[in-house]
Amino acid sequence: MPLIPSWVESANDATAAFPLNNLPLGVFANGDDDPRCGVAIGDLVLDLRAAEEAGLVELPGGPLMDVPFWNEVMEAGPEVWAGLRGQVRALLAEGAARQEEVRPLLHPLAGVNLYLPFLVSEYTDFYAGRNHALNVGTMFRGAENALPPNWLHIPIGYNGRASSVVVSGTEVRRPWGQVKGPNDPVPRFAPSARFDIELEMGAIVGLPSEGPVTVAEADAMIFGYVLLNDWSARDIQAWEYQPLGPFQAKATATTLSPWIVMKAALEPFRVATPPREVPLLPHLAEPGPMLYDIDLEVALKP
């Protein structure tokens, strides 16, 4: 899709990660300053705490960005989310009237520290991608039994370890646990020799539910998305996961990107799910396109 032009020149580059179309939200600190909420634009980050203090951004119930996390904005609901995004886009759009007030609040991304953008209260890990489910299932159960029968009927997930969620760049230790090879008579306690990564999207649920919700209502509760690395010790997992699922194999760390891409930024990329092999039960009926046609990639450094 075409880029929305901005007066921030670096945001108009075709290769820019953070054009005006995107506007991801994060928490940063410049030098010795306290961490604060910000939004990335081009190769800069806009200090939104300062913008709110200066009256450049006004949100109902504010101030909402006087804390170093996005939870207060998340809890304010979709109307506030849309208002924030609209006001920030107006401030940074080409020809914006208040450029000179905004300019001092921009900082080079290369010189700031980035932090976990929100306080994590719960973390649920889903087994959502079919190819991923087939690959992991083949790893543990063989190709003939790779996809469990319930996968076609119900979202498979388990409650993860919220306290181990960290921001990208945090050092991760190699986990220890019980491992048992196919020819080992007994397990042994050892460092993982098969420490794996999983490239995933994490959905940030901004609003709590007060009871059962429809798929459409659940979708409306999503504030945005992050990249997520679900670190997995496969040799530990193979021995411990039956019958209740992984424990120590997934407890070392779950790494999140420092930037939250708001759901609104991804709306132009919505696509329908692939045809279902079996019909879903009525409570899982999809109101419309529920996937995103976006590219994700992993780069490994030697």
Short description:
The chain has 302 residues and is an alpha+beta fold.
Describe the protein.
With about 300 residues, the protein is of the alpha+beta class. The protein has two domains: about 10-115, SH3 type barrels, CATH 2.30.30.230; about 125-290, Fumarylacetoacetate hydrolase, domain 2, CATH 3.90.850.10. About 20% of the residues lie in helices and about 25% in strands. The strands form six sheets. Strands 4-3-2-1-5 form a five-stranded antiparallel sheet. Strands 8, 12, 13, 15 and 16 form a five-stranded mixed sheet that branches. It has a two-stranded antiparallel sheet with strand order 6-7. The radius of gyration is 22 Å and the shape is globular.
Largest sheet: 5 strands, antiparallel
Got a strand count?
18
Instruction: Name the CATH superfamily classification of the largest domain.
Output: Fumarylacetoacetase-like, C-terminal domain
**What is the spatial order of strands in the main beta sheet?**
4-3-2-1-5
What's the total helix number? 8
Quote the beta fraction.
15-25%
Strand-helix topology:
Layout (H helix, E strand, L loop, with lengths): L24 E6 L5 E6 L2 E4 H6 L17 H6 L1 H15 L6 H4 L3 E3 L3 E4 L8 E3 L3 H12 L15 E3 L5 E3 L8 E4 L8 E4 L3 E2 L2 E7 L9 H6 L1 E9 L1 E2 H7 L13 E3 L4 E2 H4 L3 E2 L19 E2 L10
Parallel strand pairs: 8-15
Antiparallel strand pairs: 1-2, 1-5, 2-3, 3-4, 6-7, 9-10, 11-14, 12-13, 13-15, 13-16, 17-18
